[in-house]
Each structure stands twice: as C-alpha cells, then as structure tokens.
C-alpha cells in the first residue's frame, strides 16, 4: 500500500495489488488487470483498492484433446465457459471433476463459479466397426481415410484381416508378421508346438478331437505371455491317441 509514503509532486506511481489465494485484485479501472493505472501525484491523494472474491478455474485432460477457457480467475457467482477440443482420431466423451449437472456431455460447457473448480475433459479414440482404433489404422495406412474398410482388408495377403492383426499385435502390411503355429512335435509322452508371440498379448490354447463341432469352451491354458517377441513353446502332457487339433487364440 502507499499509506504513509511521501511522493514528490509531479511523480508518477503505479502499484500492483494481489491476494495470493481466492481474492485477486479487481482493478479500479475497467478490465481485468490486477494493477492500478499510473497516477500522477499533484496534491495529497488517497487511492482505495476494492477487493472481491474470485475463484480459480483449472482444467485437466484425459486422452487426446485440449481445453480452452480455463486457467483463469472468475468473479464469484459468474459463469465461465470452457470448450473441449479433440485431437485427430479422438472424440470427446464427458466432463468430470467439479462439474455441475446437467450437460456434462457437451463439449462447450458452462459452469457457475461459486467455488474453485477443476474440470477434466475426457476423450477416447475413435474405433472402426471391429474395434480397431483409427489412430492405429492411420499409422498403417496413411494414404486412406476410409478406416472402416481398411480394417476389413488383408493388404499383405497373409490370410489375416487388418482388425485381426491389430488384436494379434502383428503388422498388417508385412506378410511375414502374423499369428501362426511355427512347428509341431509329437513325442512319446506329450505333444509340443510353438507359435509366434508378441509382447503385450496374452494367449489361450484350446484342444479338440475333431473339427466337426465347436471348440471346448474352456482352454487347456490361458494367460500365456512373452517377455520379448518370438516363439512361444507349449507342451501338452495330457494327450490321448489322435487325432488332436490345437487352436491358439489371442485373449
């Protein structure tokens, strides 16, 4: 404050006023600045600062997008408007946090600032009909925007559709990258075989004595994973006289 301060006649002073918590200074002049305009002192003067309650509006994001209209002080009781802006291949789902009902699914959202608020804009990735993310498809097929059709293609001719390769963690543009059994060994006390495994995927193994009926609902084993990309070896010690058929499935 300037109380008790001696200022020479003709001097110009400006003073910044702040409250570090919920009451930032409201300027004497119009606008939202938090400092007084310069004042030329020509005689004894009194400057009075007027204070009012303001609340901080903060934003967070969850997923692919940004928020505009937040990170500001807002006068108590006033409305503030925030907007969720989606990144390419994402869509906005809802607001969460210190929200007011209703309309939390609207990208443009009005909220009454009667308290400090933190609003989180939630986004999710767009999916093709077989649940393949557009973002993943765009990385594999940068020359198309028809991702719904692209996920049904077998562009590398390995008999796996693109959506199947996404689930398997393989590359739909590389014919050598696919989920397949790589070898089968019939031993005196067990059957053993391998398949091409991918980090981040878990596998189940099924066994059947014929291919005329549905596969058994319960797998022989499940949750099989690998630490590095490469062959996964499976041994079946509980086998009967053949024929026996095995199926590997990505969980």
Structural account:
There is one protein chain. It is built from three helices and 15 strands. It has four domains: 52 residues, no CATH class; 72 residues; 51 residues, no CATH class; 70 residues, Immunoglobulin-like, CATH 2.60.40. A hairpin with a 4-residue loop joins strand 10 and strand 11.
Give the topology, please:
Blueprint lengths: L11 E2 L25 E2 L13 E9 L2 E4 L3 E4 L3 E8 L3 E8 L10 E5 L4 E9 L8 H7 L6 H4 L11 H7 L12 E6 L4 E7 L5 E6 L12 E4 L5 E7 L8 E6 L1
Parallel strand pairs: 3-9
Antiparallel strand pairs: 1-2, 3-5, 4-6, 6-8, 7-9, 10-11, 11-14, 12-13, 12-15
Tell me the domain tally: 4
N-to-C CA distance = 68 Å
Pairing-aware structural class of the strands and helices?
mainly beta
Number of helices: 3
Bin the helical content. under 10%
Largest sheet: 4 strands, mixed
Strand content: 25-35%
Assign an overall shape. Answer: elongated
Mean pLDDT: 86
Taking strands numbered 1, 2, ... along the chain, how are they ordered across the largest sheet? 5-3-9-7
Question: How many β-strands, per DSSP?
Answer: 15
Low-confidence stretches: 15-33
């Amino acid at each position: 404050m300037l109380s008790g301060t001696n200022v020479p006649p003709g001097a110009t002073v400006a003073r910044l006023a702040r409250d570090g918590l919920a009451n930032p200074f409201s300027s004497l002049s119009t606008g939202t600045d938090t400092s007084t305009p310069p004042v030329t002192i020509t005689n004894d003067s009194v400057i009075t600062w007027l204070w009012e309650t303001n609340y901080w509006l903060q934003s967070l994001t969850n997923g692919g997008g940004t928020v505009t209209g937040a990170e500001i002080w807002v006068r108590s009781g006033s409305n503030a408007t925030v907007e969720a802006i989606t990144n390419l291949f994402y869509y906005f789902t809802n607001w969460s946090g210190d929200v007011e009902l209703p309309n939390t699914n609207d990208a443009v959202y009005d909220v009454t600032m009667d308290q400090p608020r933190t609003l989180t804009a939630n986004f999710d990735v767009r999916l093709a009909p077989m649940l393949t993310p557009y973002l993943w498809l765009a990385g594999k097929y940068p020359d198309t925007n028809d991702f719904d059709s692209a996920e049904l293609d077998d562009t590398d001719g390995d008999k796996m559709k693109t959506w199947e390769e996404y689930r398997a963690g393989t590359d739909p543009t590389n014919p050598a990258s696919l989920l397949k059994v790589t070898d089968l060994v019939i031993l005196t006390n067990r059957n053993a075989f391998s398949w091409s495994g991918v980090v981040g995927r878990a596998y189940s193994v099924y066994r059947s004595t014929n291919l005329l009926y549905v596969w058994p609902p319960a797998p022989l084993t499940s949750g099989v994973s690998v630490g590095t990309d490469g062959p996964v070896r499976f041994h079946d010690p509980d086998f009967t006289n053949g024929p026996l058929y095995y199926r590997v499935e990505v969980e």
